[in-house]
Amino acid sequence: MLEKWNRKLKTWHLSSRSGKNSSVILIDPCCRFPHGHHPVVNLLISKYCRDNGIPIRILVDRKCDSQICARLNAEPVLDYNFSANIPGDETSLMAMLEHFNELMFQNLVSTIKAPADGDVIVIHTANPWTLLGVYRWIKNFQHKSVKLRIQFMFPPEHRIPEGARNVILDF
Question: Does any domain span residue 43?
């Protein structure tokens, strides 16, 4: 797994070609528990950045396990509460999507005022619950050179080739 992620991270060009001191902002609102892929992938990305002298900031859920936060040097600042009161019809998928994307947008606006030129934003398990909020936040900074690296989360039964899951967007 480490080798696979190292190859992927190299293709994502996490360091700035311009020589600027760019940093990585890793956004993982679902990192809460010690089990599962979230802490593992966050550790791999963090190690890659450390080994290559790239500053990294890791943002995780406010309820993230304290040992995970300490090991990752992560900031538990994202409010991604699935049990929150959803305005409107709670059975509506659109109401839920809007609610969680608004939460993500507000979290990013209050936590990271603005990324610096050359910063790279990484979301390794992107899904419809977060992408619109991230997009709304990033589009405010079109005057900056900000990179967005996404790996989509697809159920295994879709059998989507690895290359189709990765998206590289430069703003």
Answer: yes
Which domain covers residue 85, as residue numbers?
Answer: 2-8+29-117+133-159
List the one residue out of 109, 102, 115, 101 whose CA is nearest residue 147.
115
pLDDT in the model for residue 144: 66
**The overall pTM is greater than 0.70:** yes
Strands 147-152 and 120-126: parallel
How many Å apart are CA 15 and CA 23, to the nearest integer?
7
Q: Which residues lie across from 56 on neighbouring strands?
A: 24
Determine which helix (DSSP H) or strand (DSSP E) holds 68, and give its type and residue range: helix 66-72
Over the stretch 53-75, which tens digit does the pLDDT of each residue have? 889 999 999 999 999 999 999 99
Contacts of 131 (CB under 8 A, 6+ apart): 101, 123, 150
Between strands 56-61 and 75-78, the pairing is: parallel
